[in-house]
């Protein structure tokens, strides 16, 4: 019997050890500062792998059982690379040491180029360094949206309709969610030319949509209540005068509003139905909408002439400064900062390979509001846009996008009086029938973060691209809360704590 239990527990140990090696997860830290290291590349035998998130965390699934020779390789800009035998790797924390630079290396690699000459050579070598041909990219994309209502206030100053009182308006405002988070994740293959929206096709392998359905705004019940109040107090042949600030407009009352549901829909109903149909189609066409989002993220790169990130295209408008030198994948790089001389929008840091003058990484952020206006009580401020672009060589020995991150932030506000007056020219006496006078004040803050990691970039022919057919009706799987099992077995970007903690309200 004892022999049986020994064999049994030995089997359990071997099974557990084998299971534990199906995936590798750890946190990467700076050995000196103990700070997390984001954007580190984690790969197996220099093949496809993953990238650590902003907290230095990663999870890498193994496609097959590791052999005794298989190595886990961790690399990051400015740090010594580390190699581990996968079979014996059990660390939960990996410490990377900053890579020291010898003076001789600087003198050999610098070749006495000025900062301006380095930038000019980077511009001259764009076409030779980057892949603008047809490629197939295996990628993971995450879009995180955050909306916060900072102010929602409507003060009823005067009303002749009893039901349109402060209590009714407050009940409408309470129904509007004060904040909402929304996460979309996609694992897919992208076919086509990088950043060319019209020459790309998307093959979605798996997708999820994590959000709280209880925070979706639905006005059907309020619309019915609102309509009943209007029918009770407003005459069929009335018209409205709407005034907000110094502006005023006239709106005729739609007589069919009073008709039964069996009557033929009028032009207004047809228009509204058409708008609802378009909105439904937009929601249904998940693939097309997300494909365009990924393409726009790719195209927001210095490698395209029409990009807002134009420090190469319009280099005379920027001040460049050689800050330091570093290593990435054993390649020596210049670290150059850029700031606008004139009215350009961004500052940042670029990392340029000293050998072929390819820009392999850019960190950027805006220095001023990108869009801003305030007029007659309406305001809009696009105050945030920052991100990172990382490039690596593919099988064609050309640089292709490996990782992209972009964060956008904006605020919209409205603060002005609003007056609605019902008039009727067919009644005796005064034409004025009803009046609603109020002050409104809304401020809404929005933030969106997009992340894209490309695991593989393989060249394809135009014939391969043309032959591939999209499946346009694909839909994401709705998740009411974070599910750690959903991406099990798939290599993705490790979620941050906010995603892990997400749960819909019951």
Mean pLDDT score: 82
Assembly form of the protein: single chain
Structural class: alpha+beta
- Determine the strand fraction and express it as a percent band: 35-45%
Shape label: elongated
Low-confidence regions: 1-21, 260-264
Radius of gyration: 29 Å
Helix count equals 10
Q: Residue share in helices?
A: 10-25%
Count of individual beta strands = 21
The biggest beta sheet is recorded as: 14 strands, mixed
Q: What is the CA–CA distance across the termini?
A: 51 Å
Structure, described:
The chain has helices at 2-20, 103-110, 115-124, 126-129, 166-175, 220-233, 267-284, 286-299, 462-467, 497-500; strands at residues 23-30, 41-44, 49-51, 57-61, 71-75, 82-85, 93-96, 134-159, 179-193, 200-211, 239-244, 247-252, 318-328, 331-340, 346-353, 359-366, 371-375, 378-393, 399-423, 432-459, 477-479. With 506 residues, it is of the alpha+beta class. The strands form 3 sheets. Strands 8, 9, 10, 11, 12, 13, 14, 15, 16, 17, 18, 19, 20 and 21 form a 14-stranded mixed beta sheet that branches. Strands 3-2-5-6 form a 4-stranded antiparallel beta sheet, with no helix packed on it. Strands 4-1-7 form a 3-stranded mixed beta sheet, with no helix packed on it. Residues 1-21 and 260-264 have low confidence and may be disordered.
